[in-house]
Amino acid sequence: MKLKVLYQKPFILTFLIAITYVFLILDTVKYPGFIGKHFLVDARIYFAISAVLLFIWPLKSRLLKFILKTSFATMAGLLLIYVWFSVVEATHYANYVLSKYHFSLEGLIYVLLFSVMVFIVPKIEIQKLAKVEVKNFWQVILFLFAAYTVVVNVGGSLKTASVSDIYVILHLKDSYDQKMYDEWGDFYNYMHFVKNNTPENANIVIPPQIEPWWTRSGNLRLVRYFLYPRNLIQYGTEEIPDVKSLPQGTYIMIAWGEWGCDQYGCKGWPEQTIKTKEAIYKNPNSFGVKEIKENFLYNPIDTSNPFGLLKL
């Protein structure tokens, strides 16, 4: 059995291209991974399938030809939009576009890349795979796998490189702290705060590497990069199993859910009442200290100070 049966139904590819645009845009205005969570299949998989099919599908449909003819205008418009908002992000701080305009640059780069793919692929002179038979099914799967890998890696790399390069061009005289803040946002301020308020030989308990802390304050390797040579302690549960067994002078990070907070539910850590010798709260607008409380009973219900340190 050959692919000729499918070739007689070009509306399938037309529909796939349209639905891929819709899914990628939803990932942009909601959050990256929205489609994967609610529809079980990552939007970038639709991207990969469309890319492979454009290579092997005869372009007969009038509607499909119209989409391809208008692809340059679509690509040019998306490129201008992406460059503009990349400049806006670079001139402010990390995730400024997300907080101000409520859409993700990480998602937008995939919409742009998809428009580039729709414009370029039909123009590439390649041997059409019209004679591919069902026995070569695994070859098609391999193409899809390769396409998906390329899409994910190129998209992530371009987003990081474009914003970073624009930032460097516009901030040649910025200090190290300013550059790190632009890259890491409030997370860098928090790490700077912890580093300034703990000795180098301190034991520090950090949140578990589960949502919503897993990419930043609960990422052991990332936190170690900022706080070395301090000794980091991490448990796999939302509560610290036995606080009383920790050595006196141990610090515990107070960390609000960062990345994916809206997706997974905003909450603070640690999620238990703890009697402490000292509570040091971070200034929300810098890496300075807002307030220090001695002989303090930490209550997780109090969300007025979402970031800080507890000293046992």
Polypeptide structure, described:
By secondary structure, this protein is α/β, with parallel strands linked by helices. The chain has two domains: 4-170, no CATH class; 185-311, no CATH class. It has 13 helices and seven strands. It has helices at 4-7, 11-29, 34-39, 43-56, 62-69, 71-90, 96-101, 105-120, 137-170, 176-184, 186-196, 220-227, 261-264, and strands at residues 203-206, 231-234, 251-256, 268-269, 274-282, 289-298, 308-311. Strands 1, 2, 3, 4, 5, 6 and 7 form a seven-stranded mixed β-sheet that branches. Strand 1, helix 12 (220-227) and strand 2 (231-234) form a beta-alpha-beta unit. Helix 2 packs antiparallel against helix 8. It starts with a helix and ends with a strand.
- Mass-distribution shape: elongated
Number of helices: 13
Strand and helix order: HHHHHHHHHHHEHEEHEEEE
Structural class by sheet pairing and helices:
alpha/beta
Biggest sheet architecture: 7 strands, mixed
Key features of this structure:
alpha/beta, 12% strand, 2 domains, 7-stranded mixed beta sheet, elongated
SSE blueprint:
Layout: H1 4-7, H2 11-29, H3 34-39, H4 43-56, H5 62-69, H6 71-90, H7 96-101, H8 105-120, H9 137-170, H10 176-184, H11 186-196, E1 203-206, H12 220-227, E2 231-234, E3 251-256, H13 261-264, E4 268-269, E5 274-282, E6 289-298, E7 308-311
Parallel strand pairs: 1-2, 1-3
Antiparallel strand pairs: 3-4, 3-7, 5-6, 5-7
Helix pairs in contact: 2-4, 2-8, 4-8, 4-9, 6-8, 6-9, 8-9, 10-11
Structure summary:
The chain is α/β, with parallel strands linked by helices and 312 residues long. It is built from 13 helices and 7 strands.
